[in-house]
Design goal:
- By secondary structure, this protein is an alpha+beta fold.
- 26% of the residues lie in helices and 21% in strands.
- It has five helices and 18 strands.
- It has a four-stranded antiparallel β-sheet with strand order 1-18-17-12. Strands 2-6-7 form a three-stranded antiparallel β-sheet.
- It is globular.
């Protein structure tokens, strides 16, 4: 399991919850106290439902199914494949493992997975569109296993990518890694977005504003919202037990988007390429743990299905 450890909060350090008290006089005393003052406070103040260890284990199990499905998708990606074939694989593998595809019928969404090609930012609906050599495609998977949700996505190359495809996939991939590196107790939601925005815009790309990361686990979309842009130190203070997605959507051109007539598919207004990677993370005592932990390394070619 991929874990990322940061400097441990000392007993006499300021408490990560932002109370202004020393850690030993605040949340250290509440460790293992269920529901606990912090759990109640975050639920009442922010609508954030902190997860207990048993909940996290259930989300982790759903996360393992996310990774299985993404690996199967990666194996099948090639020119000539239809997005409906991807949907069928995702749906069948999810059901086979006694899980439910969360996207299916969610607010009227008609399929079991989102397949977003080239200029499509997110929520691409599977159908008869055929993948072509040089395309990029994001596949976004969310199963419900034993009542718990986990969410993850990757952008894949179809055949041989051109330089623009290589760039946007690399930048979006690195944006996720950088954003996740900011997840630790005492940091804020704004720190995550700030780090992603600084990097992506520094690479000449743009960050989508209309779609953000979100709490997940008990439901498909829970508080808090996790923008991929922002200012350091702003927003909710991260505390252990928070589970949410980091899923920056990065455009090669400008950030503006258009929603198509199907009321789901979001595309770049200027027609530029867009890419995304997503993981579900839990804030741990000393940093974070990914509950959908695919490797985050520099994207390189040339495997046909590099990611």
């Amino acid at each position: 399991m991929m874990k990322h450890i940061f400097t441990k909060v000392g007993r006499n350090d300021p408490c990560p919850c932002g109370s202004g008290q020393k850690y030993k006089k605040c949340c250290l005393e509440k460790t293992g106290d269920a529901p606990g003052k912090m759990k109640v406070e975050y639920a009442q103040k922010y609508g954030v439902r902190l997860k207990e260890p048993a909940d996290i284990e259930k989300i982790r199990a759903a996360g393992r199914l996310v990774l299985e499905i993404l690996d199967l998708v990666e194996e099948m990606i090639k020119p000539g494949l239809t997005t409906e074939e991807i949907n069928s694989l995702v749906h069948e593998h999810t059901i086979k493992h006694n899980a439910v595809p969360a996207p299916l019928n969610y607010r009227g969404y008609p399929k079991s997975v989102c397949t977003s090609i080239n200029e499509v930012i997110c929520h691409g609906i599977p159908g008869d569109r055929v993948l072509k050599d040089g395309d990029i495609i994001n596949v976004d998977v969310t199963p419900i296993l034993d009542g718990y949700y986990a969410d993850g996505s990757k952008t894949f190359f179809v055949g041989a990518p051109g330089p623009d495809a290589e760039k946007i996939v690399r930048v979006s991939h690195e944006s996720l890694r950088i954003g996740m590196s900011m997840v630790k107790p005492g940091n804020t939601v704004g720190d995550i977005g700030w780090a992603i925005q600084q990097y992506a815009e520094g690479e000449g790309c743009s960050v989508v504003r209309e779609f953000v990361g979100h709490g997940v686990g008990f439901g498909f979309h829970e508080p808090p919202q996790v923008p991929h842009f922002g200012r350091q130190g702003e927003g909710i203070v991260l505390v252990p037990g928070m589970v949410f997605t980091v899923e920056p959507m990065i455009n090669l051109g400008k950030r503006e988007l258009v929603i198509l007539e199907d009321k789901w598919t979001a595309v770049t207004k200027d027609g530029s390429l867009s890419a995304q990677f997503e993981q579900t993370v839990v804030v741990a005592e000393n940093g974070y743990e990914s509950l959908t932990p695919f490797e985050l390394k520099c994207v390189t070619t040339r495997r046909q299905n590099a990611h």
